[in-house]
Amino acid sequence: MNRFSLNQATTRGWPLPELAAGCVAQGVTQVGLWREEVQEFGVARTATLLRSFGLSVTSLCRGGFFDRPDWLLSNRQAIDEAYDLGAPALVLVSGGLPAGSRDVDGARAHIGDAIGELVPYALAAGVRLAIEPLHPMFCSDRCVVSTLGQALDLARPHPAEAVGVVVDTYHLWWDDTVWAQIARAGAEGRIASFQVADWITPLPAGVLLGRGLPGTGCVELRRFREAVDATGFTGPIEVEVFNEQVWARPGAEILTDTLEGYRKHVL
Amino acid sequence: MNRFSLNQATTRGWPLPELAAGCVAQGVTQVGLWREEVQEFGVARTATLLRSFGLSVTSLCRGGFFDRPDWLLSNRQAIDEAYDLGAPALVLVSGGLPAGSRDVDGARAHIGDAIGELVPYALAAGVRLAIEPLHPMFCSDRCVVSTLGQALDLARPHPAEAVGVVVDTYHLWWDDTVWAQIARAGAEGRIASFQVADWITPLPAGVLLGRGLPGTGCVELRRFREAVDATGFTGPIEVEVFNEQVWARPGAEILTDTLEGYRKHVL
Question: Which residue of A has its CA nearest to B139?
Fold first, then answer.
């Protein structure tokens, strides 16, 4: 249980003070945060709140979207926020194809360049950039980085303390090469974040909000956890689920179910 | 133009006699067929109709679904139908995970075994089994074969005249290794079918019916055609689009737009 982290997106709509108290009530000591929610509550105020409850921050979502004109400024600001929150990792959702573009190779090359530009800033802040491969169904509109192999190739030119990768079960479970790539990620010291969600169908329109709580779908979650652990990774295990039906329920109930699924299907 | 083939799914709802006449009217000489539609019209009747219009059949969709209890019988029947229609290739959509299963490795291994069982029957009929990798978003419910590399690995134990693969732009465009795998598919003599559709977002609920006509999306269709051609492939180029908005229009209009997109974005 000491490795569990509740990603705030799983209990979307749960106000931060209630989330903090609710986590402590159920023995949770770590959370993953989202920039929009944190900004709304205030970055410094969030840091103070979490400290007062003894909660630490495992990651901040999200930087990236390198296809947008303001990417440099917005990613520097995200690094600053991660620093202020004490989050060791800033998750990067790298962005899709620019409007009207079909140049997926070009978009991927640009991401490499953009990350290179951010590295000194991230190193200075002590915040690690965590490249997240997203499921290929998001390739055109959210993230042209679709596999763990691609994420590791993008990370390779940079120091491991500056750039790592996210292993997210939801995005990677279909890939028969993922086990080899997890081993590689561990060997190269690149696992910056491990996130868990389950795959359920049918997918809803837009496909963003169709994730399942651990154990409700078809992903071999324990196999992922064991593969990540086998590399020597001892970091947090964040559960991050986007699901409108889940969000309709009270935060404390969602957390209870999340913890039950985590115990039964991840540990 | 002599390589263009209209997959019947693109103009779903267009009755076969009208489709046949409509193809001839627009200079189209080849079609890809679907079993349900053919069965409804009658297999022998379809073969006679198409012959009378001078149309040849480039593929029959679909065999596969090896997760279903009747897979052996239904695939033999599909091979028989392909033979009767003169279709050189039977497209295999291999099936997802059995209900309640999380064993994706097991499902993939079973597909290899099942194809092995079908090979003698397919060879005897002169019908080639064409393994189609489907986009990873279909992995759990339609097809655990998600990449061209996996499809080629499944084909490898069998004679190339018995088992090939489908290169479908819609399913494969996101994969940065696809260019190397197309070259491999050509070198191994495995390209049994080349299908074209474009990727558009947002995806609709269920994600099946969200494909775009050539040129309406973000896929480098010409690059795919050139990569396939570079292997020496000279076979048909089938346009296969599932889209409810497209289907709402008259078949002849859809075909006109399909041909225009094909000329501008594929040739």
Answer: A174
